TrEMBL record:
<dbReference type="Pfam" id="PF13193">
    <property type="entry name" value="AMP-binding_C"/>
</dbReference>
<dbReference type="InterPro" id="IPR020845">
    <property type="entry name" value="AMP-binding_CS"/>
</dbReference>
<dbReference type="InterPro" id="IPR042099">
    <property type="entry name" value="ANL_N_sf"/>
</dbReference>
<feature type="domain" description="AMP-dependent synthetase/ligase">
    <location>
        <begin position="50"/>
        <end position="388"/>
    </location>
</feature>
<dbReference type="GO" id="GO:0006631">
    <property type="term" value="P:fatty acid metabolic process"/>
</dbReference>
<comment type="similarity">
    <text>Belongs to the ATP-dependent AMP-binding enzyme family.</text>
</comment>
<dbReference type="GO" id="GO:0031956">
    <property type="term" value="F:medium-chain fatty acid-CoA ligase activity"/>
</dbReference>
<feature type="domain" description="AMP-binding enzyme C-terminal">
    <location>
        <begin position="443"/>
        <end position="522"/>
    </location>
</feature>
<protein>
    <recommendedName>
        <fullName>AMP-binding enzyme</fullName>
    </recommendedName>
</protein>
<dbReference type="InterPro" id="IPR000873">
    <property type="entry name" value="AMP-dep_synth/lig_dom"/>
</dbReference>
<dbReference type="InterPro" id="IPR045851">
    <property type="entry name" value="AMP-bd_C_sf"/>
</dbReference>
<dbReference type="InterPro" id="IPR025110">
    <property type="entry name" value="AMP-bd_C"/>
</dbReference>
<dbReference type="Pfam" id="PF00501">
    <property type="entry name" value="AMP-binding"/>
</dbReference>
<keyword id="KW-0436">Ligase</keyword>
Amino acid sequence: MELSQLIRSGSESEGVWSELCSRAVGGLLIRNLPSFPGLVIELTDIPLPATYALFKLGAVLVPLNPSFNFNQVTSALSHLEASHLIISTEVNLPRKDPRSNIPLLQELVPDLQSVKLQSTVSSLKQIILVQNDAGRIDTSALKCITPYTSIYSELLQDMKALPDQGLSPTDVVNIQFTSGTTSMPKAACLSHRSILNNGVQIGDRMLLTPKDIVCCPPPLFHCFGCILGYMATATHGSAIVFPTESFNAVATLKAVQEEKCTALYGVPTMFIEELDLLADGVVPYEGFQYLRTGIAAGSSVPSELMKKLHKTLNLTELTICYGMTETSPVSTMTATDDPIEKRLNTVGKLLPHVEAKVVNPLDYDQILPLGERGELAVSGYHVMKEYWGAPEKTAAVMVPDSEGKIWMHTGDEASMSADGYITITGRIKDLIIRGGENIHPLEVENCLLAHPSVSNVSVLGVPDERYGEAVAAFVVTHAEGEGKVTSAEIKSWVRGKLSHHLVPKYIFYIDASDFPKTASGKIQKFKLRERAIELINEDQHQEMAAVSASGTAAQTERT
């Protein structure tokens, strides 16, 4: 297998995989990092060679969301009984100033100046510190912390072959915390076999070769960056570019231009921000002629957005991936040569060695006919082994059929066509039921995104006394559309294209930066729903106050 060259845009960490991985393995062995089943918690984007070195050693790598606070970090460490923590000196999150991790470390290890590590988490044996603050933070007094650079400075000079670790393809190698858009995150256990083969198949669908250069702005603590990024490129000899530590749309577009990237990854909110910058002239329309493919995933991808990406960024072979953390993560994917309508309106076909069925969400034994909507369940090599330490939660989603085959129930509503294409119509929990009629938010979102003044939108259901639920839309307008498009015009637009019951009752305008998102870029609809209810209640109180004041004035006039 030809190994790709590591390209980390904006840094000096470039080199050949095999050499760097060997050095990292040697350094990690010297530092006595654990072999399987030792657990390493990662609270930073560590250089890729260290990631592969940990995989070679058989350690279980657990990347954490860098926005986690002390309570969340200690909860994860304790829940997993992790032995090692790799952490950076600073946290870099989108549109925020860097935040020092030293206060978190001080809570985790009260006496950082001590030579011996004594943590509030009893299982923790070692902390490795990645210096990413450009010298702003003095760490010389942190005696019990291991600098990441020392791992490379104490290398075995003869580069001895790595001793046999007795690894099995089915060993857990990666634990991914689910994103938690609707609930507390759970720890999904993924194996060597599941993530490596998923990466191979993803790269195959994209037709990746050693000539490809993939720009990967999604975060590396998420399956998107870790598997669709790491594994798909490494198994095909392709180069990979990480523009910045946290997502920056300008840096992403410039990386594509400067590195002559042929592929671009992103979730819908990332692509929308990039398109807005191009439309506003912040980044020039040039240097994108090398782009051909990429991946849009992470949440439902509206067809109108796909059309814009084809036209504006030359992503004519852009693919759609569908999956979830628990499935390593991809179950279905479009191909670069799929008919355009299939790439716009479906999530493609199943990957090899993956099975799927659409079932009645109230009766898992009832498999629904082709074309009928129900809950999607998948089975295959890619399904997680379990949620760590949560057998009841595992049993709730990994359900055996009458023959004993395990099916992962996704919680997504879907339908399957006779030719094998799968269409996702939304999260079952996000389904809006208005007067007994089912409304799929994605259908309304697609319609609104086709409006020339609308940049982004999120549609959801809110309580309604008459119909049970009403449709509400949070709308982001283009810069030139701010203050020009009215709620009445937006409702009229939907009314002209969709059935009357799909027209939003409530329109809320919001800045793109105010959309509540997970650190991986997914919009958190449950937070928008809470905000919508607050706004509706405020309006109702104001209306009642106005009516009360009007009544008092009328009574005074009559008097």
